[in-house]
């Protein structure tokens, strides 16, 4: 049966489109203007073409920040996705304890980003922090202001604590959508727990796991507030990710042209990855419908 298309529905989203245009598109056009022009003040600009893009691409500082960013994103995805699936599988499916677990899982997501950074900055301090002081008592140097390894471990642990819950909730929702008939058939076939996960649960989780990976990649690739509050990008530049480097370039050094070019390339990378994940999800949806 063919569906009737109602084009008048577009008028319902017109206020949202206007809001997005005002809050996103106009600032983006300002960034594009700075990326291809230079100025000496008084709002007078002159064309420089791709000069700022070339400067950024030839900068060792940008490539080092990109390397750190990719390592961080890969690390948190490698930890949070398997851990989130494991926690979701261990959670009860029905009853009051299921509700309690869902509430507990949602709590870290309700905490503002700057508060999360402050919590872990205090937690890792060697003088009053529970983690830093306890490790110092047993002879482990966990000074996040001087030890690069300690800074990285703290930032990764903080992100895992804050965002694994998102993967858990998505995986749990995917598990809840699996019909009981699949489990009953597996029980009749005397399938092992691993076989049930491999051939029943994991295929049904592909869609939600792609969404979880996409969301976590985007968030981790754009992360700024938490590591900046915890380490300030240090010690040195060991935890200076792309977003922190961009802010330092734009506000610290006031290099608006290179910063604008940097931000456009940053945006395009995230947009490209998002498009790739969207294409994969659409193809998976088509395959499921054709089965």
| β-strand amount | under 5%
What structural class results from the helix and strand content?
mainly alpha
The domain tally reads: 2
The CATH C-level class name of the largest domain: Mainly Alpha
Fold-level CATH name of the largest domain: MetI-like fold
- Which residue ranges are poorly predicted, with pLDDT under 50 across at least 5 consecutive positions? none
Q: What is the H/E order?
A: HEEHHHHHHHHHHH
Distance between the termini: 20 Å
- Kindly report the name of the CATH homologous superfamily of the largest domain: MetI-like
CATH architecture of the largest domain: Orthogonal Bundle
Mean model confidence by pLDDT: 87
Spell out the blueprint of helices and strands.
Elements: H1 10-36, E1 37-39, E2 45-47, H2 51-57, H3 60-90, H4 96-106, H5 113-123, H6 130-137, H7 148-176, H8 180-188, H9 193-221, H10 225-231, H11 242-252, H12 256-290
Antiparallel strand pairs: 1-2
